[in-house]
Amino acid sequence: MTNATTTLASGSGYSAFTPIGILLAIFVPICAAIAVAVWGYYRLQRHRADAVAMASYRKLAEEAVANMSDLRSEMSKLAEHVAAVEQLMRDVG
Q: In whole angstroms, what is the distance from residue 30 CA to residue 39 CA?
């Protein structure tokens, strides 16, 4: 029984793991925090790149709508001219 008491009292099982436990308790949260910060940074950069791409697509869409409006007005003018030419051909023909 004295052998078991000596083993428990010496704490040899805990003395080897205590420094490792302390290092893990310090470094694991720090490494996890750094990993989360790096992940968040790259996620933010990806969102910024997506926002820039969306802004350019939005600008392109606005230009397309403006061009379509111009095209519609020119098409209506052309339709008026064609109608006038058709009427002239009917009058002559």
A: 14
DSSP letter for 11, please.
Answer: T
In a domain, 16, yes or no: yes
Residue 30 structural domain: 9-92
Of 54, 50, 51, give the one whose Cα is nearest residue 62: 54
Mean pLDDT of the chain: 86
Whole-number Cα distances in Å, 64 to 40, 45, 56: 36, 29, 12
In the structure encoding, which two tokens stand for residue 68, read together? 């379509």
Cα(81)–Cα(89) distance, integer angstroms: 12
> What pTM was computed for the model?
0.48
- The yes-or-no verdict on residue 51 having pLDDT over 90 is yes
Counted domains in the chain:
1
User: Alpha helix (H) ranges present in 1-93?
Assistant: 2-10, 12-15, 18-92
Q: What three-state secondary structure class fits 1? A: coil
